[in-house]
Design a protein that fits this description.
Length: 123
């Protein structure tokens, strides 16, 4: 089992920045690919970014490319999502997720999920 706890969400004005954190516990963190996903009101959950266990590869949704950066610190069992140039359409509950092995962009392939953290971007 892997337990995930997100933090760092909040209310920010358009153009602002936030950094989300997700702390993992329970297994060897570096064995797990990590992903960030989000669900906006009335919409399906969508892929945001992924990172391999060794940080050698990252992947981003087109809607956040160039604005968001995913990173991880395996010594702290933590994955981050640095969000800049935020837009109102980034408003959503953000979830981190873990899967053993390689990265995938499909949320269905992630076994472990955090409780989510709300990000609200005002215009």
């Amino acid at each position: 089992q892997v337990q995930l706890v997100e933090s760092g969400g909040g209310l920010v004005q358009a153009g602002g920045s936030l950094r989300l954190s997700c702390v993992a516990s329970g297994r060897t963190f570096s064995d797990y690919a990590m992903g960030w996903f989000r669900r906006a009101p009335g919409k399906e959950r969508e892929f945001v970014a992924t990172i391999t266990g060794t940080s050698d590869n990252t992947n981003y949704a087109d809607s956040v490319k160039g604005r968001f950066t995913i990173s991880r610190d395996n010594t702290k069992n933590t994955v981050y999502l640095q969000m800049s140039s935020l837009k109102p359409e980034d408003t959503a509950v953000y979830y981190c997720a873990a899967r053993f092995g390689s990265v995938r962009v499909s949320s269905n392939l992630y076994s472990y999920w955090g409780q989510g953290t709300q990000v609200t971007v005002s215009s």
